[in-house]
Amino acid sequence: MLGHHYTHTFLETAVASMNAGCNLELAYGLRNNVFMHIPQALAMGNITLQVSWGTRLRPLFYTRMRLGEFDPPAMNPYSALDLSAVQSPEHRNLSLEAAIKSFVLLKNVQGTLPLRAQDLPGGRLAVVGPFADNPRVLFGDYAPVPEPRFIYTPRRGLETLSVNVSFAAGCPDPHCQQYTPAEVVGVAGAADVVVVCLGTGTAVENEAKDRRDLSLPGHQLELLQDAVR
To answer: How far apart are CA 166 and CA 128, in angstroms?
Structure first.
């Protein structure tokens, strides 16, 4: 809140946060963090003991107890997990199901989706854009780093269809300052269906790196226009 000039000191921030309902701080290794000033706020009467303990602190410990943090390890089912559970087929299938169900379809003209190989008369599909086949740009801020063999880019996923898939990035990265329109136009013009993969990614925006507008970076809009002509 200091960065947004809502408060001027950590003490003011602690008082405002606690009284507003916040009971957890992401201090990120700061020894002199905001909530270290709670005792001073209590002593000054800016925060009451009822608020600090009864309303803010108690739910935290109640949640930790429900999660089993204070139970003997033998009582905690998570203690029995080992590395065999990481990227297990069951977990990968569940992740795939979650990803499929999280898609938002804004418009489905003439039932374009779901896309089937038999719906492509010439069996030709093009996937273009800086996000089409670049695993490094597919994950957002605070995302885990999976093993490369488990990452399916749009190109890799679409190549599982029984069709001829052609590819053109057009731009080397999401900033799209260097754009090669000829390869996008050539690939898109020879396809029955074109899948355009655009966006921002953490290279363009993430925490503490905001943008002033929602426009596509660099030449990405031009790439989109070239692909749909």
So the answer is: 8
